[in-house]
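Checklist before submission:
- one chain only
- standard amino acids only
- sequence pasted in full

Submission:
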Amino acid sequence: MKISIIGTGRLGGLIAFLVADRGLADELVLIDVNKDHAEGQALDLRHAFLKAGKNIKISSGDYAAAKGSQIVIVTAGKPRTAATSSRSELLAENAKIIRQISKEIKSHCFGAVLITTTNPVDPINYILWKETGSDRSKIIGFGGLLDSGRLGAILSEEIKTTFSYEVMGEHGENMVPLFTRLKVHLSGEQKEKIRSRLLGSAKEVIEKKGATEYGPASHILRIVEAITGDKKETLPCSCILEGEYGISDVSLGVPAIIGKEGIEKIEEWRLDSQEAEMLKKAAEKVRGEVKQAEETLV
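Returned file contents:
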């Protein structure tokens, strides 16, 4: 299994370390606009694993080095900071970066499963799909899995119990926590408090330590493991929709079965009227962002 990571900053570097540490690849390639940084990351990783009994080839290079990759993880782009009030503020600049990366992916590793982490994830995932011409099953936007993990952490504090918890919709202001799938009754006031905390959870981490790292990296690894292990695991991911949930031509967080070929099936869960309406609102928001981004790319 060959995995390439585009963008070797804090998140990309941590993902690379976890991929190597868990033995998920036979070959790991690091690519970054700052070639010295990518080379330094690769060298640091080789120092970590060469004598640890892990038989993995770790290197850095240009995009041609990604040829033959089965998985490409895209973390490149301007990151969210404490000064960023919304992920959407990053769209114009990151859309241009993703467009250029898409050309390189199309030239050197077309057909790989692509995992998008660049914010705002949903419109960026859609742009990556359009620009690469990949089958929609090969395009997986990260976000919903992390939002679900954050929801679980909040629920464990608010109601002192744990159970199944999922978030759909936008990885942003229009995320849709699925309260109807919980096995306990929550009042309207409790739901609003939990949703408010959920919306502010990433910003809270960023304000305190500068960036989110462990949460995103650990959940991205779940997607990678589902692919490398052909787990057929249902995970909430941003997927290109073509009629699912009555929504088309947009990328949104929905439950998807992930296996060695990428998205093997999008599951359509039963939603109540409020959740369905929130999902449609999220779709409208993301479509508007894509249109806005496409205007800047002309």
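Reviewer check: The mean pLDDT is 92.
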